[in-house]
Write a sequence for this structure.
């Protein structure tokens, strides 16, 4: 590619910090290996043949694939699996409490709901940006079963609200450091006749929420490890 970009063997040799004979020898070796000439030599320099124009295009694709492979290999090498062994029983799932940092997901592709007035997508993107990367969204859907199917295929990952049933083919992990959260606000009109019931309503909502937490293993584990203090600051 250096010869094609430079337009002559002499200029390519200078850019590569090699002698012109060394570049010529290497070019001939490559041409013999590929079975055809890559350049036509003339007084004005070199011009690529049809093969010479095709090879750099293919080489760029290969280099891109090699770069992606290298990044994937480094991520896999940095991720040391933890194996827990024992007699099969549901209780062994309670031994593993894994969290993942948002920054560790920088190279992943995401499926997200379509943007709306809630601002959730913008908030998520801002959290990713604060973690040092731009979120790469490849799919949008408002149908949860579509998002789960895409995630189970290994193409993407998706954000989930913590309360919910286990989903076949998916692993749910909490994000370390609580970078994403929602504030739940109960509002009512001034002068509402039933305003005296607000405390009772809040207590009922809180009780129901705790019951949902208890039924969601991932959320329950996070709650027990200090999540309650984050979700209910000053109350527990």
């Amino acid at each position: 590619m250096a010869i094609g970009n430079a337009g002559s063997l002499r200029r390519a040799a200078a850019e590569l910090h090699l002698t012109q004979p060394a570049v010529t020898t290497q070019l001939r070796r490559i041409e013999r290996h590929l079975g055809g000439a890559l350049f036509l030599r003339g007084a004005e320099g070199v011009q690529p043949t049809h093969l010479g124009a095709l090879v750099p295009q293919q080489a760029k694709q290969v280099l891109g694939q090699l770069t992606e492979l290298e990044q994937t290999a480094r991520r896999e090498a940095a991720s040391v699996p933890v194996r827990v062994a024992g007699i099969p029983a549901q209780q062994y799932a309670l031994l593993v409490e894994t969290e993942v940092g948002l920054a560790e997901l920088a190279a992943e592709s995401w499926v997200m709901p379509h943007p709306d007035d809630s601002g959730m997508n913008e908030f998520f993107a801002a959290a990713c940006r604060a973690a040092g990367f731009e979120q790469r969204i490849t799919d949008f859907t408002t149908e949860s079963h579509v998002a789960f199917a895409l995630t189970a295929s290994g193409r993407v990952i998706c954000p989930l609200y913590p309360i919910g049933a286990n989903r076949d083919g998916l692993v749910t992990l909490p994000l370390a450091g609580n970078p994403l959260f929602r504030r739940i606000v109960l509002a009512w009109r001034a002068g509402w006749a039933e305003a005296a019931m607000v405390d009772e309503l809040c207590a009922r909502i809180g009780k129901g929420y705790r019951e949902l937490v208890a039924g969601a293993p991932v959320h329950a584990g996070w709650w027990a490890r200090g999540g309650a203090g984050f979700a209910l600051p000053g109350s527990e």
In short: DSSP finds eight helices and four strands in the chain. Strands lie at 39-42, 45-48, 109-112, 136-140.
